[in-house]
Specification:
There is one protein chain. It contains seven helices and 50 strands. By secondary structure, the protein is mostly beta strands. It has seven domains: 107 residues, Immunoglobulin-like (Sandwich); 105 residues, Immunoglobulins (Immunoglobulin-like), CATH 2.60.40.10; 101 residues, Sandwich (Immunoglobulin-like), CATH 2.60.40; 93 residues, Immunoglobulins (Immunoglobulin-like); 80 residues, Immunoglobulin-like (Sandwich), CATH 2.60.40; 88 residues, Immunoglobulin-like (Sandwich); 141 residues, no CATH class. The protein has a five-stranded mixed sheet, with no helix packed on it. A hairpin with a 2-residue loop joins strand 4 and strand 5. Helix 4 crosses helix 6. It starts with a helix and ends with a helix.
Length: 782
């Protein structure tokens, strides 16, 4: 086997490098192209995993039984009868499940179903054919570009010779029997083979043996066609009378709506006759156009193309003319005369010749018929009005073609007072452009009924029915129809019963228009009306009013068909709105033109503005007043410590009657608040002259102050006077002028008697306060 030989060769080639790459693993034959149905294999080197591997094809695990181990270093996966379009084969480590290597395999096929045709160029059909066209099938499963070559061989030339190249699945050889590289004998069988080749693979089709006369496609014949009243005659001449031919004639009626009419075919086999005559007399109508074409073929050879169509008009066939005569009794003009409108199916207008129509009257008296001498010549080819009496009559229509009687038909007209049966419970329904009519049979029942219908009272259509229902089609769109059903007897007719008028199709509702718009500040009154465009407009079910402001949401309100006005509320004052009305029916919708209106200004706007203005002014007044008060408060003077001094005040028991200024009460603070300057203060020299006093209290104050100072100096080395102040604090507060860094100045008076006052304060406790100059000025004034 080829794949086994390749496998052994690959293993031998790799065995040389095995010693140098014992720890490496790989897969060989990585990219392969395999023909459909053939076999191949994939080899995996397993030295790095000690042979513990498994295979996957397109990520699906393969059974271990399909894998074969060659030796301890290699494993092979045979792929027999390969049929996958594309396969990815991977070799995995069983321990780590990592991919050791992989290969991609593409499938390719060989060309098949070869078909060749010998044919002539258009316009020629005699002699040796010079064109050979071959087609074939080929399934391509990859994106590789495929080039095809058509190869020729025969018994006289066994070598494959290239005669045509192509990149698609067909190829035409020009001058086939004139090729210089091969010797072709006319009538000799030959073989055709197709080769498909890419950059990766090459495939040959099976050889196809061909017989020239079995693949010869002749051109269609040049024929003539003649039309008669009852048949068509197709003729042409043959150039080959020694070969059997098969021919077909195709004919179809020319339809007024296109080529939708069914086609008919006539087959015939030709032997040795030189003139071909084919007569067609089936399914032909009088005075009707037909299109005719022909094709033929040699025995066991392909059919030729269809010839170009020829159009012919058949002649009038008397046997095909069937008048369908009917009548409609119109309103009574006077007491003695009636008008009857006779109608019939006319002879096709395509018929050539002169046609005339005549109606004769026959009066029925005592169940016998008396012919009248009067006759009416009808100028119209489909209807004619005749005046008759109130009695029963027979009307006979005679049609002449070139002054020869062509056909006749009669119809019965009952008397005005004749009591005849008629149908009841007649109903009509419109459905998808057709009208369904049903009724109840009279008593006694009859076997046939005549249904006639018209949309304008002039053009009638009619048909017979054996059932108590009928379907009316080919109607004029959106037109109201009057339908009448009349029972038929053997020789007479009953009375007609007319159904309610019904439309062939109900359309959209009539046009809707807005009549009036009355706008207020927050509301608007809207009214509208509808006008039917035609009698078959749809009945309105609902009205929907759409309105929207500029740059606003579109709103809508829906009302039923009985309401044609509405009051829109919750509108914005002084706002422009656009509005339109949509009427909805079961068969469609109709929309009015858009209308624009503007709501009025709010009448309470001045009051609202005045109230809002007052509120605004009040709020502004509060804001400005608060700001003014805050500003004045911030402008109040703050005492400058540099302009203040320290004074000692007696206790509350000694203040009454002595001082006008009440001391500050702050029991949580010490007797003297600490005031720190830039540097440590120097001990000042405190003199009695620096303490202020006034009038009689001065002497006593000096004594008290002198006593306090003396006592303070005597205890400076110890902890100082208990609960009064430290040495540094007392010096800082009492030496305003002697210390350059102190913010306070001394208070002196020559008349002060601070000694006695200080002694009293020592007993009762001292309080430190900040004093401004204007405070003392007020005291002196008092």
């Amino acid at each position: 086997m080829d794949w086994l030989f390749n496998l052994v060769t690959t293993v031998m080639a790799l065995s040389f490098c095995q010693g140098q790459h014992e720890d490496s693993c790989s897969v060989f034959s990585k990219d392969q192209y395999v023909e459909v149905g053939s076999s191949t294999e994939v080899l995996c080197q397993t030295t790095c995993v000690n042979g513990r591997i498994f295979w996957t094809i397109n990520n699906k695990a393969v059974s271990d039984s399909l894998s074969e181990t060659i030796n301890s270093t290699h494993a092979v996966l045979p792929l027999r009868n390969f049929s996958l379009h594309r396969a990815t084969v991977n070799c995995h480590s069983r321990d780590t499940r990592h991919i050791l290597g992989g290969a991609t395999i593409w499938m390719y096929s060989k060309p098949r179903s070869i078909s060749c045709v010998l044919h002539y160029e258009e316009g020629t059909g005699i002699g040796v054919p010079q064109l050979l066209t071959c087609t074939w099938e080929h399934l391509v499963y990859s994106s590789l570009k495929v080039n095809y070559t058509v190869l020729y061989s025969s018994e006289s030339n066994n070598i494959l010779v290239e005669i045509c190249n192509s990149s698609v699945t067909n190829c035409t050889v020009k001058g086939f029997y004139s090729l210089k590289n091969i010797q072709l004998l006319v009538g000799e069988d030959f073989n055709i083979t197709v080769r498909a080749k890419t950059a990766a693979w090459e495939a040959y089709s099976d050889s196809q043996e061909l017989h020239p006369f079995h693949i010869l496609k002749i051109n269609p014949p040049q024929f003539e066609v003649a039309a008669f009243s009852d048949h068509l005659l197709v003729t042409w001449n043959r150039t080959r009378t020694t070969v059997k031919h098969h021919c077909q004639v195709r004919y179809r009626k020319v339809s007024s709506v296109g080529d939708a009419a069914p086609e008919h075919r006539y087959n015939k086999t030709l032997h040795s006759e030189r003139m071909v005559k084919i007569r067609i007399d089936e399914a032909l109508d009088s005075c009707t156009s037909y299109r005719v074409s022909v094709c033929w073929a040699l025995d066991e050879a392909p059919w030729s193309a269809w010839s170009r169509e020829k159009t012919v008009l058949t002649k009038l066939n008397r046997n095909h003319i069937r008048l369908r005569l009917w009548r409609k009794v119109k309103q009574v003009e006077n007491k003695d005369q009636r008008t009857v409108s006779a109608m019939w199916t006319d002879v096709p207008s395509t018929c050539r010749g002169t046609f005339t129509h005549t109606i004769k009257q026959s009066t029925v008296k005592n169940d016998s018929m008396e012919a009248d001498n009067s006759s009416t010549a009808c100028s119209n080819n489909s209807t004619c009005d005749v005046s008759v009496s109130r009695g029963a009559h027979w009307l006979t229509l005679s049609v002449f073609h070139d002054q020869l009687l062509l056909t006749e038909d009669s119809v019965y007209v009952p008397a005005a007072e004749e009591n005849l049966p008629q149908v009841t419970q007649i109903q009509s329904v419109t459905l998808d452009g057709i009208i369904l009519v049903s009724w109840r049979a009279p008593n006694p029942p009859v076997g046939r009924y005549m249904i006639d219908w018209t949309h304008d009272g002039n053009q009638y259509n009619w048909k017979e029915s054996a059932d108590t229902n009928a379907t009316l089609s080919d109607l004029v769109d959106r037109k109201p129809y009057n339908i009448t059903v009349t029972p038929l007897f053997d020789n007479k007719t009953g009375l007609g019963t007319q159904a309610l008028q019904v439309c062939s199709r109900v359309g959209e509702p009539g046009s809707v228009s807005i009549n009036n718009v009355q706008a207020e500040d927050t509301s608007a009154f809207i009214s509208w009306s509808t006008k039917a465009q035609d009698p078959c407009s749809g009945e309105v079910v609902t009205y929907t009013v759409f309105y929207e402001a500029r740059e606003g949401l579109r709103l809508n309100v829906t009302v039923n068909h009985t309401q044609q006005e509405i009051n829109l509320r919750s509108l914005s004052p002084s706002t422009q709105y656009s509005i339109h009305v949509v009427s909805t029916a079961l068969t469609g919708m109709s929309r009015s033109t858009e209308r624009v209106f503007k709501t009025k200004t709010d009448p309470n706007l001045f009051t609202k503005v005045a109230v809002c203005g007052c509120v605004f002014l009040f709020v502004a007044f509060l804001i400005l007043g608060g700001a003014f008060l805050r500003r004045n408060f911030q402008k109040k003077p703050v005492p400058n410590p540099g302009l203040s001094s320290v004074a000692l005040w007696p206790s509350l028991s000694h203040r009454n009657g002595l001082y006008l200024i009440q001391p500050f009460a702050n029991p949580t603070e010490s007797a003297f608040d600490k005031v720190h300057t830039e540097g440590p203060p120097k001990p000042p020299t405190l003199s009695l002259d620096s303490l202020p006093c006034d009038d009689a209290a001065c002497d006593q104050g000096e004594k008290d102050a002198h006593s306090a100072i003396t006592k303070h100096e005597s205890s400076s080395d110890s902890a100082g006077v208990e609960h009064l102040c430290s040495a540094e604090e007392s010096q800082a507060f009492l030496s305003a002028e002697s210390s350059p860094v102190s913010p306070y100045r001394s208070q002196t008076s020559a008349d002060s008697k601070s000694g006695e006052h200080m002694e009293q304060q020592e007993k009762t406790g001292l309080t430190t306060v900040y004093v401004t100059l204007d405070m003392f000025e007020n005291v002196q004034q008092r």
